[in-house]
């Protein structure tokens, strides 16, 4: 099996009997090693002591007095957020269970960075053994914001962080000109000829995706299926569609904030402007294998999944919308 996404930290975990990932000391230590938590040179003695004791025992209880003793207010807040997150991880039977609890609890106090890291780790588990780079590159949307370029009818996505980190130099190619300036190496758009290179660069996130292509859209559909099957234990089929022309559509889920906004406007009967149509960059139809899993208000009708781009031409997919937004029957709401 070819390795991918080492940066997810999956090698720091262990699988449970149910197929989830156990929260290990090594996983907690990886969070403690983040630059936001490693005490700087001018940190106070209390912060240094807290970090050192947690490195020795990442599960140890931390008293309120230990936090109050930290002199820097920003550092104190960082530790409060981190320890609350750690405690929620440790209280769950698996990483997946912790993620579901956070999502269903409304995500209060959970930094987006931590949520993306959990999703990265969970998808690495769900897609273990996947040998299709198109699926894996599309799945990066779940935890990596993208920058969009519309070019001759194609919707090109590139990793936003990679583009932003390399802006400032002269562009090296038309693709980089469209997506942003890159100082080191050029981005390749994933295709059949270069797909084999994905394995060696999966943690660099340097391959662009043509979401207009059939394989890219099918790849995102397969990633959605794997994500929901792994988390909710439901069998679904997700199919890319060309548009939302169904006169009897009963349910939709916005895969991102713009997809939700566009879907709500359509639901209210508003006419979609050409600019709005351009921002709706992908539509999928989701069908349940077992109709008893579906809310009776939807029945056998498809659930539409809408992906949009912001006016700034970015995409920030919110996979947790699928967990809380699907029309599941009452007895299927807890996985």
Reconstruct the topology from this structure.
Elements: E1 14-15, E2 21-22, H1 25-32, H2 45-56, H3 64-68, H4 73-91, H5 95-104, H6 112-126, H7 133-139, E3 146-151, E4 154-159, H8 160-166, H9 174-179, E5 188-189, H10 198-201, E6 207-210, H11 214-232, E7 236-241, E8 252-254, H12 257-267, H13 274-279, E9 280-288, E10 303-308, E11 314-315, H14 320-325
Structural features, described:
This protein is of the alpha+beta class and 335 residues long. The chain folds into 2 domains: 6-126, no CATH class; 139-335, no CATH class. The chain is 40% helix and 14% strand. The strands form 3 sheets. It has a 5-stranded mixed sheet. It has a 4-stranded mixed sheet with strand order 7-9-10-8, sandwiched between helices. The model is unreliable at 169-176 and 181-185 (pLDDT under 50).
In short:
It is built from 14 helices and eleven strands. The chain is an alpha+beta fold and 335 residues long.
What's the domain count?
A: 2
Spatial separation of the terminal alpha carbons: 29 Å
Q: What shape does the CA trace take? A: globular
Strand count, sense and barrel status of the largest sheet are: 5 strands, mixed
Element-by-element helix/strand order:
EEHHHHHHHEEHHEHEHEEHHEEEH
Fraction of helical residues: 40-55%
Quick one: how many beta strands?
11
Q: Helix segment count?
A: 14
Q: Which segments are poorly predicted (pLDDT under 50) over 5 or more consecutive residues?
A: 169-176, 181-185
Write out the strand line-up for the largest beta sheet, numbering strands in chain order.
5-6-4-3-11
Strand content: 5-15%
Q: Please state the oligomeric state of the protein chains shown.
A: single chain
